[in-house]
Design brief:
252 residues, alpha+beta, two-stranded antiparallel sheet, globular, single chain, 8 helices, 9 strands, Alpha-Beta Plaits, three-stranded mixed sheet
Length: 252
């Protein structure tokens, strides 16, 4: 179903962290629509990381395209290689200047790591989420939003989104929103609640059993990860290179 997007407004996203199951359908849809080659360049990234220890582990998910900030510090750092598009508020790269050194400065300036490169070479081409501006011109939603099976995403003018969902611009582990004013509204996940009380120690003992075979483990301390064992124990929005990128989020 098509709609008409009024020009001259700042458009952005809404993300409900509690509804997201990190299926990465949005990531695949983004790569497919924009013909982004397999490799380190990901215009839309889904981050996941774990906190807590078994059996009280929490899995976090974060939808991370470019947030098309109202105050894009990357544009200033890019020294003319990027610009703020006036019709929908999209932050875009000048394709003629995508492999200049200023794009590395712009990538460093972006607190969300939205600018990506096709390799680690100093002259690699930079690219990023375009807010699906080509689809907006056709009256179509960004494909990431249209493809979300869990309805964890929404899209519209920021005035509409704030009126509908509130004005939460950052959630746990994200940089402060005051410096850039990202064009996204968040709904943070609700903390898990124990609906039926249980003894965690007894539950672990039951899980260890597999009669008539030997127990899977006998020492419960083995279930507590040692420092460095959990590779994704925190959010890393700005990996330093392709190798680090592969260890901080799903490979797609």
């Amino acid at each position: 179903m098509s709609t008409t997007f009024q020009k001259g407004l700042q458009y952005g996203f809404y993300f409900d962290q509690g509804r997201c199951v990190d299926c990465k359908t949005c990531v695949v849809a983004c790569k497919s629509w924009n013909n982004v080659d397999p490799g380190p360049a990901k215009w839309l990234r889904m981050f996941e990381w774990e906190t807590g220890t078994f059996p009280n582990v929490t899995l976090h998910a974060l939808f991370a395209p470019c947030y098309h900030c109202a105050n894009p510090v990357c544009v200033t750092a890019a020294k003319g290689a990027m610009f703020k598009e006036p019709n929908y508020g999209a932050v875009l790269i000048d394709p003629q200047l995508a492999n200049t050194s200023s794009m590395r400065d712009a990538a460093t300036a972006c607190p969300y790591g939205a600018i990506v490169f096709d390799s680690d070479s100093p002259t690699a081409n930079a690219s990023k989420c375009t807010l699906c501006i080509d689809r907006l011109e056709q009256g179509l939603l960004p494909l990431c939003v249209a493809s979300c099976m869990e309805r964890a995403l929404d899209f519209g003018s920021m005035d509409q989104l704030v009126k509908k969902y509130g004005n939460v611009r950052q959630i746990e582990s994200l940089p402060a929103a005051s410096a850039t004013t990202p064009s996204i509204v968040f709904k943070a996940r609700i903390e898990h609640q124990t609906l039926i009380p249980y003894d965690a120690s007894q539950a672990i003992q039951l899980m260890a059993k597999r009669d008539p075979y030997p127990a899977i483990f006998t020492d419960q301390t083995l279930l507590t990860p040692k420092p460095g064992v959990v590779g994704r124990a925190s959010l890393n929005l700005t990996p330093k290179n392709s190798a680090e990128l592969r260890t901080t989020k799903g490979r797609i």
